[in-house]
């Protein structure tokens, strides 16, 4: 356990050397796993359904917001790639990679949404576009190989497109747009992380396979 903790702290050659670990910038294995996972992205995107049902607050400390329910959703992503260099560390019993990866674009389309603000209700469509950056830390040890840390670091500048009809739709749509923008990181995290974890599972499988 002590050695695994040290792997996460390996940020420079001096620390790694004193800990008995060897750390270098090495992108080969991560690039291989990313490349192998690209097929999983295209297959998953064509079949997934994304339920989305939650209250989106306008102000964090007030229970004042829009109740949003979205169904008949699908998602698409383009060009999953490494973002920056990978820090690869290893000793006689452990290997790890730490770094970032990103998507050029992630798009969620919901063909049916219902949004309610106070007693005003509107139906329509919702499209969410963003460019996420994730940090990851993956370890191969004596007992298991696992993705031990995955964090959404950045969503770029999200774009929320809402299509509704009538004055009620216009009004609720404007309020919903503000609420989604105000909670953009949480919305992007919930939409992506909760529904697309299969991509990360596939990435881990290919990375661990190269470590055997």
TrEMBL record:
Domain of life: Eukaryota
Keywords, sorted A to Z: Signal
Secretion signal, residue range per the UniProt entry: 1-16
Protein's name according to its UniProt entry: Uncharacterized protein
Lineage of source species: Eukaryota, Metazoa, Ecdysozoa, Arthropoda, Hexapoda
């Amino acid at each position: 356990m002590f050695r695994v903790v040290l792997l996460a702290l390996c940020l420079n050659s001096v620390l790694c050397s004193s800990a008995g670990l060897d750390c270098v910038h090495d992108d080969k294995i991560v690039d291989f796993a990313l490349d192998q996972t690209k097929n999983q992205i295209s297959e998953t995107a064509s079949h997934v359904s994304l339920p989305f049902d939650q209250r989106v607050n306008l102000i964090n400390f007030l229970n004042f917001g829009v109740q949003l329910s979205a169904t008949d959703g699908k998602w698409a992503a383009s060009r999953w790639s490494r973002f920056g260099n990978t820090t690869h560390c290893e000793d006689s019993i452990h290997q790890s990679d730490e770094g970032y990866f990103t998507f050029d674009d992630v798009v969620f389309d919901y063909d049916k949404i219902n949004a309610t603000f106070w007693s005003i209700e509107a139906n329509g469509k919702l499209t969410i576009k963003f460019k996420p950056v994730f940090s990851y830390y993956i370890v191969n040890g004596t007992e298991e190989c696992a993705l031990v840390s995955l964090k959404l670091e950045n969503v770029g500048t999200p774009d929320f497109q809402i299509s509704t009809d009538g004055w009620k739709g216009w009004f609720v749509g404007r309020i919903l747009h503000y609420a989604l923008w105000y909670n953009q990181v949480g919305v992007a995290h919930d939409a992506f992380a909760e529904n697309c974890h299969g991509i990360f599972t596939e990435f881990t499988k290919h990375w661990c396979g190269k470590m055997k």
